[in-house]
What does this fold into?
Amino acid sequence: MKTMCRPLLGATMVLGLSTALPSLAQADELTLCWAAWDPANALVELSKDFTAQSGTQMKFEFVPWPNFADRILNELNSGGKLCDLLIGDSQWIGGSAENGYYVKLNDFFDKEGIKMSDFAEAAVNAYSTWPKGTPNYWALPAMGDANAWFYRKDWFNKPEIQAEFKAATGRDLAPPTTWDELLETAKFFNGKEIDGKKVYGAAIFTERASEGITMGATQALYPYGFKYENTPGKYDMDGAVNSEGAVKGLEAYKELYKCCTPPGYTDAYMGETLDAFKSGQAAMAMNWFAFFPGLAKDENVGGDRIGFFVNPKEATAASTLGGQGISVVANTDNMDGALAYIKWFAQPEVQKKWWQLGGYAVHNAVLNDPSFKDSQPFAADFLVAMNQVQDFWQEPSYAILLQAAQKRFHDYVVADQGTAKEALDGLVKDWTEIFEDEGKL
Amino acid sequence: MINSDTTILEKEPERAAASTPVSLVRRIGGLSDRAIAWLFITPTIALLLAINIFPLIWAVRLSFTNYRANRPNAVLETVGLQNYQRVLTDSDIWIAMQTTAHFVFWTILLQTLIGFSLAYLIDRKFRGHAFWTTVILIPMMLSPAVVGNFWRFLYQPQIGLFNYIVSYITGVPPSSFEMLGSVSLAPWSIIIVDTWMWTPYVMLICLAGLRSIPDYIYEAAEVDRASAWRQFWSITIPMALPFIMLAVLFRGIENFKMFDMVMLLTGGGPGSTTEVASITLKREAFESWRTGRASAFAIILFVAVFGLANIYVNALNRVKQR
It folds into this structure.
């Protein structure tokens, strides 16, 4: 009997330990969810310092952008426990706050002495607050971003091209500062043969499925005077969304698409515009600042061959907001660990290293540093852009609002259906119906 | 030799019985045949109820509510027939249904014509026909995801082989037209891919039909000095018709719910030009999160397909009885 008991006891202990060990490991582990892109790799590097200091192992769940919203919002909706920390899109904050998916961080910030005034005001407003502009914080600004432009500086600097441009337009060839200039420059380059290759004016966002064309078209709409509401918070959209300026802005975006994009770019987003530029097809391209560190270092088009410019103004100066805040998922089993990561991430030294690695810190210690503007060729533009950003609706129903915009913009810009006025009138109708369903109208 | 084999076969059940544990034999032995049958099919029925019937009933229930999957904590309200009314009066949904009908019609027409023609040729049993049959079947053996991505490259205006072939034949520059980006060409680009992929499937069914026609019927027709044309219209087509109709039924149901190919090739674009019903449904359910309305749309689609399929199966049965 004794001989039988010993192996049984041993087996029971092994079994007990083997079931206990994973939970011990889990307590010292955090999973951070984000999109799979260049800055995510920088965050992996940065987080090694957190692991070294705290002993907490970091796991990462990076989802490609086209599936990011679907995948993560499904996770949140289903009460999943995949993510302890989430760097979620700015538009998700309303829904995530109202549905209790994010932890409200006010008390934690007060306790740990984390001040939102240490971060850029526009970033705090966009990435952290709900309702917008109120001191109710659901995230710490993690990654400032905006839609901007880059161009082939080497082509712009060619004397023969400069002379030809001057003869054609009467002005010097330079990065556009207005949308009229942008169109003119794109038309000038479109179809031109440079270095033995036919090139095109500009690569822009036209993607239909997720958010691409909306993020691209608003880059034209905002400068021309598009507003979501006549009175903020009143949802009175008629006359704002479909204003005369907004109509002109949408027409300008379509004109740019029709005249000057490379063939086949009917469903293009971040990856495609980068491809068009890197393959030497496009003279100019739009994309998020997040990609600029990689572009600046690119072997073929980086270095002296690339230049950057902030979104051209028209009636006003404006850029489409990107970027995200980092939130603690309410469903986490490791709340203390997740909050410890936020506390660590908010430190000025960590924020400085974040910027050095390729992340877009929006901490004032980084942005107000006198050397910041010269730290990267696009740093000065980033500061300008972050002071003029406008974001899409951040309402809980943002996904439906976005789908309506995607459809109306793609139908008009790419599929040639109707006029800009009809597209924007239709958008007012769609959005009105959505807000009526929400009980907000 | 035959005798010894027979003896072995006769002894097999006895051996199996001998090797079965006595307790199991006794336990099963106490059950009727009917009970044993139920014992075996119960897990399957339970599985079917869990993964087919329950979700269907649940979807019917949700279709009468304002439920949104992204707001599980919101108060669930019964909205009566409002979701059905909104779906049926939504012009975008009717456009998606027209787009679907357009795809279904053209893909079935082309696949049936080409599939039957190929089957007719293969049935001639020319030299190497087995090899060519295998070659023709390759597209339908590929994954739709592979086919979708593969054709996206072929249709690429600047480097795509398709555009170059068209350019070679017609003389128009290859980058002067966009199969996936043009409103007029995008629907046809999907029809071409679906036809390329699934014509072999129709061919296979038609070939089975042609091979099932007994040779003696043709021999009798030869004796009666019927022309080849007359034999084709009076023997081949009527006798292969149930098989052709079966292929049309299978492809019709498949193409009515076409999703993967359209999603991979155009994503429903440009604009909403190729947005078929299944993509509208997906957007409604998983992008707009109007789960109640999406459920109503799904039920409407289900009833439509189920009803049409039933009418068609009745017609098929009538043809078979002739």
